[in-house]
Amino acid sequence: MSVVFADGFVTAGVRAGISSVEGKKDVALVVNQGPLDVAAGVFTSNRFAAAPVQYSRERIKSGHAKAVVINSGGANACTGDAGYQQVLDTAEHAADTLSQGITADDVLVASTGLIGELLPLDAVFRGVDLAAKELANDSSAGCCAAEAIMTTDTKPKTVEITGNGFKMGGMVKGSGMIAPQLATMICVITTDAVVTPQLAQNALRKATEKSFDRIDVDGCMSTNDTVLLLASGASGVEPDNAEFEKLVAEACTRLARQIIGDGEGSSHDIKIEVNGAETEDAALACARAVASSNLLKCAIYGNDPNWGRVVSSLGTVPSAVAAFDPRDVTVDINGIRVCDEGKPGQPRELVTMDEREVDIIIDLHTGMNETATVWTDDLTLDYVHINADYES
Amino acid sequence: MSVVFADGFVTAGVRAGISSVEGKKDVALVVNQGPLDVAAGVFTSNRFAAAPVQYSRERIKSGHAKAVVINSGGANACTGDAGYQQVLDTAEHAADTLSQGITADDVLVASTGLIGELLPLDAVFRGVDLAAKELANDSSAGCCAAEAIMTTDTKPKTVEITGNGFKMGGMVKGSGMIAPQLATMICVITTDAVVTPQLAQNALRKATEKSFDRIDVDGCMSTNDTVLLLASGASGVEPDNAEFEKLVAEACTRLARQIIGDGEGSSHDIKIEVNGAETEDAALACARAVASSNLLKCAIYGNDPNWGRVVSSLGTVPSAVAAFDPRDVTVDINGIRVCDEGKPGQPRELVTMDEREVDIIIDLHTGMNETATVWTDDLTLDYVHINADYES
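Above: the input entities. Below: the structure tokens describing the complete assembly.
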């Protein structure tokens, strides 16, 4: 059901001919039919933010939007004024096509694909036209939209959650270039709850900080990351703030987890949990350092519980960032304490790595109990294949 | 000639049986016969510094040393008090074996190999005994020593430079886990110049900052990085400070360049030069960000001049670290301006990447002209093979 699980939304995903992959759907449209048109967004902090990010980041400041046009097959990043004009033209065209009182200012735009090329604008327009005719709120439409935003993803990623009298659904794409502070990911979450723009924005910001900001496929931050939350108010239910924030967080976490599960070429999902830190920031810095180790990621691909590559990464975190004594640190891999007080613990031969998920639990033993978890993927031959062959 | 190119040194490299690779030489000994015994060292900043690093870092503070024992086949890192005792025992054993007025305090120790296992100390002792008998100052001895310190290196790496009346030689090992702030590398540079410990230390620190600190094979900092400079004074020539510093810098740069040329599984050496920055630190931060992009490194492996992956990495550098306007940035790959003022420039099809070396030149166009260069390797199928299969 994806983005149409919640009431008040229609969607479509169509083939417009932007993507060079034969038959690949490449334009998705999501329309909020109200009564509310609340919208919130979180975007990449990359300084080469793509034209659609520059545009949508500005538009979302109003707290309102009625439609989102998303294309795969081209990022429209590093395309200068001409690229920005393409976004304006797309929003204008979508508003004209959808009519129903929708103006260009009500339309958000997101793109994903290769950096540095203008979009084939006629194909984008064609996609919008086709999608506008197919708008629906059934599961087929929801699935087509989730497919249309995919690039190197191998499967659509969606979520549906039921709250206390209201619903929330969503879709995400993202597989490579996934790193702290978002990722090459485009995510649309919809809800029929009655919420204010402020609550929507706060809930989304908090949720992304603990979900999309804590996954790292390959340490590469994208120019196009976009996470949108649209609220229609169609349920008529005004949820408790805490409950709403919790549901947004759950939607983001479940979608983020699916990105890791579909990481480019990956064979293992790696959970890196750091406990016993003085602060959450310290725990997070340690988890990120370990998650970014190519050597560790290769070892996990080889089913090798190489804890030396865990601690050598941990040891690169400056003391000022995370206080700990290396002689206190323990590392458990899949339940086996392979490193105890900075020294060899139980034999690594005891560790089994047959499952896709690998749990690495690090305890800094500082005497405090702050914690953070980051998810990453292993680094495989297929990752290199995919990224060496990806069309220039 | 390696470490015996300069007068006053003897060396040997032997098979002791520490390395699990059949027939692989695994113990090297370098002895400074004087008349001076000046020594300087630069070590990893990893907080899980290996036992030999902890020991040698302490010893080098005296500014003097007469011998270095190096083993491959085991890092003696994360081995606790027992590992530290192994270093003390090794130094003691080497002093006893070499005699000639050499005490344990005169002996430095360096190790490389797998983290988290104690060394087979009897094999280390046997290696020291064998090497002590084979000490010589001919090119065969120099080559054997350079071979004995290798791990995943595919070839020995040495340098010989002649100064104004004095000589300098050196050897280095390092292939993976090579990252900013040194690398899994062990380097010994020798000279017969007459220098003070202060000059030696200053020259070595400055040289490593511009050489070994500016290469990055895989973003992984080692627990065992050790760079040593030994001066025998045998030439009787006291060089000009500036000339001496220049030669040490040249030796380090040439050895660092060889590490990149032998990066694990690599098929391209990638030079990332950032110009037009406000400060050298800003240029360096930009170069490091680009050098650490797995996506770019995969693209280069695929002979794809994917400048989108250059700018998306550049865009992750915070404004506070490096001021620049994305709309001013140019990127040249092998002489073709593929990105001009943040937009597509000349067609990327014009770029040829047949040569091993790939030059990426980024100009931030801030109006200032500070610059920095970082070297890295591409990310290949062989890199993943090597690091997934490396014995746990």
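Note for the figure: Residues 241-261 of chain A form the longest helix (21 residues).
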